[in-house]
Amino acid sequence: AIVVLNSHFTAFVPAGVQLTSDPKKGMTQLPASGGGRGGFTQTATLSGVGAFLGCLGSPTDQGAADLAVAFHRGLIAGLTVNEALRRARRGLFEQGPQGDDWRYYVLSGSGELAVQLTK
Questions:
Q1: Is the four-CA dihedral 69, 74, 77, 78 of positive or negative sign?
Q2: Are strands 105-109 and 51-55 parallel, antiparallel or unpaired?
Q3: What's the Cα-to-Cα distance from 79 to each of 67, 74, 114, rounded to whole Å?
């Protein structure tokens, strides 16, 4: 029901960003041109995924890890997807300038989904 792709530009690739295959160079900014390219958001929606969490930027490894841990802890605690993401993003925001990764995460689909753990 919930898919999380916590990596560079998984939601979509904005105009002006080119992904390179060189791991040393990573993502490079280009002059703004036409529209961006779709990421996995549309694929998830067309596949029937209830909620999709992806990135529209290039988070740091630490920021991605911090957000993922906080988000999943929220889900385990019974929060909705919306609330778990809001709190996880808030946690990154409160880290100050080194926590700017909060702005890269977007949710598509039903944010009211929640995980119900059973024994």
A1: negative
A2: antiparallel
A3: 15, 5, 6
